[in-house]
Amino acid sequence: MREARSPMRTAMALRPGEVEAQWHHRDLEDIAQAPPAPNAFVRWPNAAREFDDIKGLIEKYLTKNFPTAGIRLRRKMGVFTQGSCFAENLAASLRRYDLRIDNMPFGEEHNNTFANRVVIDWLRHGAQNDAAAIIEAKLGKEQRARYLAALRDTDVFVYTMGIAAVHFDRITGEFVMSRPTETNKAALFKRSAFRNSTVQQNVDNLRDIIAGVRELAPKAAIVLTVSPVPLRAATEFNSAIIADCLSKSTLRVALQEVLAENPPRTIYWPSFEMVRWLGGHIDGRVYGSDDGSAHHVDLGMVDHIMDSFVRTFGDAELLGTRR
User: Fold this and answer.
1) How far apart are CA 280 and CA 86, in angstroms?
2) pTM
């Protein structure tokens, strides 16, 4: 490329009005003078057969040169999972290793960042408002002390973002915390609108959740992930599949905006991409093979997610403890 600059200059002198020659000349000058590109291209798999080996596929295209932010997992370390219902699946899979695992179980009615933010506020301040009181009634007042102790001692906090669709009061526009009863579900759809929250709302919630976790679990690294579990129903669109796409996209973009702020010892783990982006190309289903439910990620796929997590962050001794 550099050798072509001199002949190109000669061509420009002979035919100064040649537009295409001017373009080539400008490109060659850019190539010669510009500093090296900061990032190399990484590519999507070219051959369909690469999807036959899910472990190799994850290691080559998702976790190779993964930015670990210095986070290391060793035997007996504590991992606390919270957020959507998918957090419980991750915790169950991690129990195959010699780690101390805690999970805050959650139903699907509380799997959005608004409700998760209330949970963190409840842990910090107790049942100080109606929304926090609903959380306390569900999780148990006596459990709060146990969760607080576990968080203070945990080394890694894994937070899974569930869905972006939320109940908003039709009059005030405020978030409405649901209660796990059939009558409340019916009442909610009368007085609130079930619609997608915005990227900015989820950015704000996620910032607050991270700040709360920093207070409650001061020594913990924070791992953020998006649950691949789809929403069950929608009212905002004529298709729940379309609504789910927008919901997950909203959460993923919000998460990326927060990561761009470089919060310390906070990373993203691509559980969502492993299931939704790779799962669409591998043979067989990644949902429902265990129990027939289109909402349940196959346990084998969950194990792939967490095995790759331990391979990325764990030392050799921890890897050898897998049951």
Assistant:
1) 19
2) 0.88
Give pLDDT, residue 73: 95
Residue 245 tokens, joined: 């796409």
List phi, psi (to 5°) of 38: -70, -25
Q: Token digits for 282?
A: 């591998």
Q: Say which residue the tokens 């991690």 belong to.
A: 94
Q: At what angle do helices 143-152 and 130-139 cross, to 10 degrees?
A: 90
How far is residue 183's CA from residue 304's CA, in Å, rounded to a whole number?
A: 39
* Alpha carbon distance 191, 156 (integer Å): 39
Residues 6+ apart with CB under 8 A from 58: 274, 278, 304, 308
List domains and CATH numbers for the chain. Answer: 51-319 (3.40.50.1110)
Average pLDDT over residues 113-130: 95
Residue 144 clears pLDDT 90, i.e. is over it: yes
